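My current task is to audit a protein record that another person submitted. Thanks in advance; the entry in question is below:
***
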Amino acid sequence: MQKKQIVLYLGYSALILLALYFAVGILKIGGDGLAALGYSEDSIKEGFIEGMTNEEKEEKKQERLQKQLEKQVKAGPEALEDRYDELREQLENIEGIPEYQTLIDFQKETAELHVRLMIKDCIIENKPLDSKSAAIIKNMQLLKALDMVGSGSGGYK
């Protein structure tokens, strides 16, 4: 080996050892610090305060819920309307693309084909339609959703 290469390897080794030394030192300091405060690993539980009764805990929970509701009321329906307007605009932009409608039509045809095939299988195999009813209902709901998208209106305008 050349001297440059040996020095380079020694330098890398020293950097790795130094990084390990600092990592172990920081972990040791952090662990000793918690131990010095008297906390064991099982004594700290997030969200629980020792000595609180169930009634006090329930009261705190109700206060947090009330604060969240107040924030939503302060934001008001205007913020929601603005967001809905943005979403409607995005949908109008994409629904105006002919390729999008082509893909929707393809998805409709696929779902219709699956429903027809499931019904055919039940009839040919002399099984009750109940055996495939969940899948048929799921595909019919998908068809209804695709019809709504394909028409370009969600009925919420």
Observations:
- Residues 58-92 form one domain.
- Residues 84 and 90 are 10 Å apart (CA to CA).
- Confidence is low (pLDDT under 50) at residues 153-157.
